[in-house]
TrEMBL record:
<protein>
    <submittedName>
        <fullName>Ribonuclease Z</fullName>
    </submittedName>
</protein>
<dbReference type="Pfam" id="PF23023">
    <property type="entry name" value="Anti-Pycsar_Apyc1"/>
</dbReference>
<dbReference type="GO" id="GO:0016787">
    <property type="term" value="F:hydrolase activity"/>
</dbReference>
<feature type="domain" description="Metallo-beta-lactamase">
    <location>
        <begin position="19"/>
        <end position="218"/>
    </location>
</feature>
<dbReference type="InterPro" id="IPR036866">
    <property type="entry name" value="RibonucZ/Hydroxyglut_hydro"/>
</dbReference>
<comment type="function">
    <text>Counteracts the endogenous Pycsar antiviral defense system. Phosphodiesterase that enables metal-dependent hydrolysis of host cyclic nucleotide Pycsar defense signals such as cCMP and cUMP.</text>
</comment>
<dbReference type="InterPro" id="IPR001279">
    <property type="entry name" value="Metallo-B-lactamas"/>
</dbReference>
<dbReference type="GO" id="GO:0046872">
    <property type="term" value="F:metal ion binding"/>
</dbReference>
Length: 244
């Protein structure tokens, strides 16, 4: 069986009808959690899963809807399951994640660095990292917030999973036309100006051949009103399992 994906949530940062945009990626051998936001603990619970069902977590960037659940993950793994979970992360995010997000809550006797809470495995741009026999990941830095690094994912050289990002049509076209991309999971902002995200209108400006590869995620509570208005692009549904 190939890769499968189940979104823990498909909502944007302020969505209340949808959990944070975090994904469970099922490989042939393990379960990888892509981002671990504030709502990840509740969403996992609703799926009947525990933290022990997660083999590793990968972080795209440091916003609460993507990292806000890491403190509970680390504490439960240490004190309930007696394990140090694997964390895949850009080498550029290690210091900010610890110093600016986790240290205040996680820091205590025996946990003085990110490496004390997690088995840290560094990801580097331009380098393909083998997760297991069935999954390889390359991080691609994509613009989101000035001064805050954010990394989209290229999985197995054929699936693009966007981090929060501003519209990057040239990157999407290059991936599809020159790098064998056949599937795109893309964040979308349905209303208002993009500023730090990609708007639906921007995605609609792409050629149909690219749009037909796109599934939409990280959307707002108004998603249902946009059914039928997204051309070839479909909204991902949280908790449904999709073959990749
Ligand atoms: N310049 C900015 C910066 C942030 N934001 C909002 O803050 C959210 C943080 O999480 P996110 O998922 O990246 O979405 C961001 C915007 O909604 C925004 O709307 N404009
Ligand atoms: Zn977000
Ligand atoms: Zn963000």
């Amino acid at each position: 069986m190939g890769l499968r994906i189940q979104m823990l949530g498909t909502g944007g940062a302020f969505a209340k009808r949808y959990f944070n945009n975090n994904a469970l990626l099922y490989t042939e051998h393990q379960t990888l959690l892509i981002d671990c936001g504030v709502t990840a603990p509740t969403s996992l619970y609703q799926l009947g899963k525990t933290w022990a069902d997660i083999d590793a977590v990968l972080i795209t960037h440091i916003h609460a809807d993507h990292v806000g659940g890491l403190e509970e993950f680390a504490f439960q793994m240490k004190y309930i399951y007696q394990q140090r979970p694997v964390l895949y992360i850009s080498e550029q995010l290690v210091q900010p994640l610890w110093e600016h997000t986790l240290k205040g809550g996680l820091g205590q006797d025996g946990i003085e660095r990110l490496e004390d809470a997690f088995e840290v495995r560094l990801l580097r741009e331009g380098q393909v990292t083998r997760i297991d026999d069935s999954l390889q990941v390359e991080i691609i830095q994509t613009p989101h917030i000035e001064g805050k690094k954010s990394y989209s994912l290229y999985l197995n050289g054929e699936i693009f999973y966007s981090a929060d990002m501003k519209f990057q049509p040239a990157l999407l076209q290059e991936l599809v036309r020159e790098r064998g991309c056949r599937r795109i999971y893309h964040e979308v902002q349905l209303t208002g100006e993009g500023f730090v995200h990609t708007t639906l209108d921007e995605l609609l400006s792409l050629p149909p051949a690219i749009r037909s590869q796109i599934s939409l995620m990280h959307y707002g509570d108004e998603m249902e009103q946009f059914q039928g208005k997204t051309a070839e692009m479909e909204f991902l549904r949280q908790h449904e399992i999709y073959d990749l």
